[in-house]
Amino acid sequence: MTSTPSTHALRQYATTTDNLTSRIAVHAYGTNPQSWFSWLGERLPLAGDVLEVGAGTGTLWTHVDHVARGVRLTLTDFSGAMCAQLRTVPEARVQQCDATDLPFGDATFDTVIANHMLYHLDDPTAALREFARVLRPGGHLAVAVNGRDHLEELNTVGPVIGRPDLTLHATQNDFTAETGPGYLARYFTDVSVERYHCDLEVPSPDPVLTYLASLSSEPLTQEQSSAARDHVQARIAADGSFRVRKHTVLITASAGATQSADHV
Q1: CB 46 within 8 A of CB 64
Q2: Residue burial 155-185, b: 16+ Cβ < 10 Å; e: rest
Q3: What is the DSSP string of 101-122?
Q4: Which one, of 175, 75, 184, 74, lies nearest residue 129 by Cα?
């Protein structure tokens, strides 16, 4: 059975938050003293009506005090499990929906945030058209996405142990740090890119094994787990830690005064 980005996302996220939580956890070993969520929060235009699409577990809002800023926050996700978690975010309106069919009126929001989610869609352009539709003229879009070489060392462990399916890139569309600005330029103006400079230095094999286990519904066999542990431990012995390159960017843009013909 051929897997599309959306069918893979359904298997991974529709009924559980565990897989996403496991993958977020490995980033605790980042070399940047400022976490991704804190860094991102400093750069978001947070005022008025703010929508985060594909908000996942809502981790961003444990680092950003939207209540103190007077933000009217709306959070969406396609997953019922994620939405249940999102309802714990203080004073946030939560709506379960698809990113390509937002149940909001035209020109409803001042800011739309898409944090590491557009590459999970079969048609990211459909979501971008929706973002343009629900943004007010002059409103802001903030999109976080990864480069093609993001987490390359983690992505190579699966093939080494005979599990080539354990790579993120195999289950995502072509919306990346390299292609993202071009996608946004079709529907928005003032497109700019800023990179979050950070790598990972993982001190033991266990976080890597947990990360790998989160990528597939088919668990690693004992032999595969042992092979992965040996591979990671050898790297730690040689380098002092299991070093992983990250490539994450924030792409921002503005909504124009009127929609182009490409929006309709």
Answers
A1: yes
A2: bebbeebebeebbbeebbbebbbbbbbebbe
A3: S--S-TT-EEEEEEES-GGGSS
A4: 184
- Other C-beta atoms closer than 10 Å to the C-beta of 238 total 10
pLDDT per residue as tens digits for the range 114-163: 999 999 999 999 999 999 999 999 999 999 999 999 999 999 999 999 99
Both tokens of 250, joined, read: 């924030």
User: Which residue shows structure tokens 């009924």?
Assistant: 15
Q: Assess whether pLDDT exceeds 70 at residue 236.
A: yes
Query: Encoding tokens for residue 148?
Result: 């093609």
List b or e across 126-154, with b for residues whose CB sees 16 or more CB atoms inside 10 angstroms: ebbbbbbbbbbeebbbbbbbbbeebbebb
Distances (CA, A) of 74 to 9, 64, 67, 116, 262: 22, 14, 12, 17, 26
Q: Which residue has the tokens 């908000």?
A: 55
Give mean pLDDT, residues 181-189.
97
Distance CA 38, CA 239 (A): 29
Whether the predicted pLDDT of 259 surpasses 60: no
Q: Is the pLDDT of residue 262 over 50?
A: no
Query: Residue 197: how many CB atoms within 10 A of its CB?
Result: 13
48-76 residue pLDDT tens: 999 999 999 999 999 999 999 999 999 99
